[in-house]
Amino acid sequence: MTNNLVLSETDAKNGKKELVNRVSVKYLSAYFGENQVLKTVSMDIYDKKVLAIIGPSGCGKSTFIRCLNRMHEEVGGEYTGEIRLDDVDIKKYNSVVLRRKIGMVFQKPNPFPTMSVLDNVVAGLKLNGFKNKTKLKEIAESCLTKVALWDEVKDSLNKPGTSLSGGQQQRLCIARTIAVEPEVILMDEPASALDPKSTAKIEELIYELKKNYTIIIVTHNMQQATRVSDFTAFFYLGKLIENGKTKRLFTKPKEKQTEDYIAGRFG
Amino acid sequence: MKINNKQGWRKRKSNIAVFLAVLSAVLVLIPLFLILFYTVQKGISSINWDFFTQMPKPVGETGGGMANALVGSGILILIGSVMGIPVGVMSGIYLSEQNKGIMPHAIRFLVEVLNGVPSIVIGIIAYITFVIPMKSFSALSGGFALGVIMIPLITRTTEEMVRLVPSTVREASLGLGIPKWKTTLFVILPAAMKGLFTGIILSIARAAGETAPLLFTALGNRFWSTNLNEPISSITVFIYDYAKAPFDDWNRQAWAASLVLIVLVTTLNIIFRFVSRKRK
Amino acid sequence: MIKLFSKKKETKTEKNFYSKTLVISERHLGDYIFQNITRLFAFFVFGLIVLIFLEMFIESLPSINKFGLSFITSSHWDPVKDKYGALPFIFGTLYSSLLALIIALPLSIGVAVFLTEVAPDWLEQPISLLVELLAAIPSIVYGLFGIFVLAPFLRIVVEPFLKTHFGFLPFFKGDMFGFGMLAAALILSIMIIPIITSISRDVMKAIPDSLREGAYALGATKWETIKIVLISARSGILGATLLGFGRAIGETMAVTMVIGNKPEISFSLFDAGHTMASVLANEFTEAASDLYISSLIEIGLLLFVITIVINSIARVVVNRVTKKYGKIN
């Protein structure tokens, strides 16, 4: 579904195609019981671009992305409004199918404790009935290579997933996520629990991954947002304050609150 | 000086209290050591290879062993496990996942109630349910009684251990598009397995030491039997029969069998503690 | 069912936008089946308790119909004449358990105090372990110990001593065989000490140290501080006691092996007695007539009901303490 939206000048110059709308969010309000966590958020998310979501703690960033893959409901939340993936309301999807299309990487690396590295990577496939062992191994190798982990673990594929270092575990989780061939990848502060070196590796990875996947990354690190993302959305107290091209938002923010946050005046 | 006396009296009272506390601890542990001491002392002399491999000898003849009792207990515990473990684990999963409405709380309460029912009453139930219709005592009825006794502990442990699995594991699995039930069965349950195992070990230890529910279900059998529809021997009933008997030789064998039982139960408890610690 | 509802709602238009959607996790078929399988097993437990009560009730009907209330008030237990009154057993159960409690309670509290307030850390763990070991010993082994070690000891040493010095009391009259109420009460007390101790210990441990520190700061001695802790923990200790009492009531093997198994009512500790549990263990396999079995089962029913009531009250008390201080076993 194409949507002739805002073109960047560079894109126009390079004759690139228009931005393709992948996920559209309209008037999204999210609740935990009586507590309203998101207030009528509306935005579009474009194919094969990286969207960074920034804002101070508690502004609803994590809740927002969890609405996208319906994890919000798993913990007892509710929402009103409409979220569409490729112009189909996500509620029409079976939640299991939806989550294969929209994958998620969490803040703290969480490889399955009882599974080996290999089994972790293909868990999403294996547990859904995929049996062919050779094909599984191929997929594992390909995914581990994509996350630049293959060389480091190719000799310890049978070791427990939890035996890797923090940075490696997170890359393992990313490999696990892309093994089910999602179209969109949600990342909830994926590098915040990692050391700077591993963080850099993850950021490199995101840059590579965006060639093939649409990525939404929640981050509290503004420098990270500027480094990896094409678009940035600024949330504050559950409201979407500003949304636009990263470069523009950080250099010429339209809203005062955005400017204050970027300047470090709060949060 | 009056004040000093009062202080002195208070201090003395306190010292007496502390002394009494220590004394209690000593007094309470004395029976423990006495029981262990006597069991070893009176039983060890009859422990030999024959004791484990031979069948009981007819009345009047000395010697013989408890081979059929060992096998019998094994079979009874096996039947009990076949019944108790699935029911316990599934109920535990139910309790860990469901929180809506009154049913989960009612069932949790009833599981505790079941835990407190005297084992002899469970024996009566097994009697009514199996022995009466079958018109005979049987290993099946005894195993059933043991199974019922095992359920509450396994249920409670399963619920605890499943709840202990970090929610991040669950999130990761659901996030991958793995259905809820597969997440529970193939991701969370394996993660809780060590804990589950300890619960099962403990309940086997408890079942192994039960006598009352077997008295009129499995009854006891002086002969070799592995037929589930017939009475079967067991370590505990063996001890009971041989302890009551007026023969010295039999009494000695009762002590020996007691020693075997204590070693068995203690070993299971040690395994339990070892596995629990490893988990940490 | 709910999916159908929400489908209907979606065909309506904008109105739906702003109404809170009924989003309960969608029924994936596998989830539905699994959930109901676990529910089935859990309800099996529910059904088991109901079954226990119903089966025993039905089987006791002949006895209930024949003897009615006199079953509880009559002490005439005569298998030969097929006449049954269960009073001796009810008395025996309550008397032996009460005696056990009187002996066990001070000791259990003493040990709990020792473990939480007196013992240094390195000593607490092993001693706790040993006390728990007491709980792991099977009842039959206690019985064996009772028959061959305790009873002779009572007969030869303790009972004569008691008779000589306290024989004027009604508790120490009659012939001394070693077997009887005293032996039963002693064995029972050893068996219930671990449970009273461990729960009391957990309750006392859960009481915040600030209470103790406050007491010391005011110049209280150790004993005075301990008193304060005990008073704070009193409902938990009550719960522990009830649980111990419930355990004593249901205890079978150890009791039947030392109590003498005579359906008599006597306050003397030297005399033989019988409890509800021990008569079941003793006479069930020998019950010849249907009425006999029915009466025995009625005793089982009484035992069942009494234990449930006591254990339920105990659990409620302990749960209330748990809510106050955090998790206790």
Structure description:
The complex is a heterotrimer of chains A (267), B (280) and C (329). Chain A is of the alpha/beta class. Chain A is built from twelve helices and ten strands. In chain A, the strands form two sheets. Chain A has a six-stranded mixed beta sheet, with helices on both faces. In chain A, strand 4 (78-85) and strand 5 form a beta hairpin. Chain A is globular. Residues 1-15 of chain A have low confidence and may be disordered. Chain B has two domains: 2-46; 51-279, MetI-like (MetI-like fold, Orthogonal Bundle), CATH 1.10.3720. Chain B is built from ten helices and no strands. Chain B has helices at 2-43, 49-53, 67-97, 103-116, 119-134, 139-164, 167-175, 180-208, 235-244, 248-279. Chain C is built from 13 helices and no strands. In chain C, helix 12 (276-283) packs across helix 13. Chain C has 329 residues and is mainly alpha-helical. Chains in contact: A-B, A-C, B-C. The interface between B and C is large, with 87 and 85 residues.
Helical residue percent of chain B? over 70%
Text of the CATH class of the largest domain in chain C: Mainly Alpha
Tell me the CATH architecture of the largest domain in chain B: Orthogonal Bundle
Q: Give the domain tally of chain C.
A: 2
By CATH, the superfamily of the largest domain in chain C comes out as: MetI-like
- Number of DSSP strands of chain B? 0
Q: Could you list the spans of chain C in which at least 5 consecutive residues all have pLDDT below 50? A: 1-25
Q: Biggest interface and its residues per chain?
A: B-C, 87 and 85 residues
| Broad structural category of chain C | mainly alpha
How many separate domains of chain B?
2
Give the arrangement of secondary structure elements.
The complex is a heterotrimer of chains A (267), B (280) and C (329).
Chain A: H1 9-13, E1 21-32, E2 35-46, E3 50-54, H2 61-68, H3 71-74, E4 78-85, E5 88-89, H4 95-101, E6 102-105, H5 117-126, H6 133-146, H7 150-153, H8 166-179, E7 184-188, H9 196-209, E8 214-218, H10 222-228, E9 231-236, E10 239-245, H11 246-251, H12 256-262
Parallel strand pairs in A: 3-8, 3-9, 6-7, 7-8
Antiparallel strand pairs in A: 1-2, 1-4, 4-5, 9-10
Helix pairs in contact in A: 5-6, 5-8, 6-8, 8-9
Chain B: H1 2-43, H2 49-53, H3 67-97, H4 103-116, H5 119-134, H6 139-164, H7 167-175, H8 180-208, H9 235-244, H10 248-279
Helix pairs in contact in B: 1-10, 3-6, 3-8, 3-9, 4-6, 5-6, 6-8, 7-8, 8-10, 9-10
Chain C: H1 2-11, H2 29-67, H3 70-73, H4 87-118, H5 121-136, H6 139-166, H7 181-206, H8 209-217, H9 222-232, H10 234-250, H11 253-258, H12 276-283, H13 290-325
Helix pairs in contact in C: 2-13, 4-7, 4-10, 4-12, 5-7, 6-7, 7-10, 8-9, 10-13, 12-13
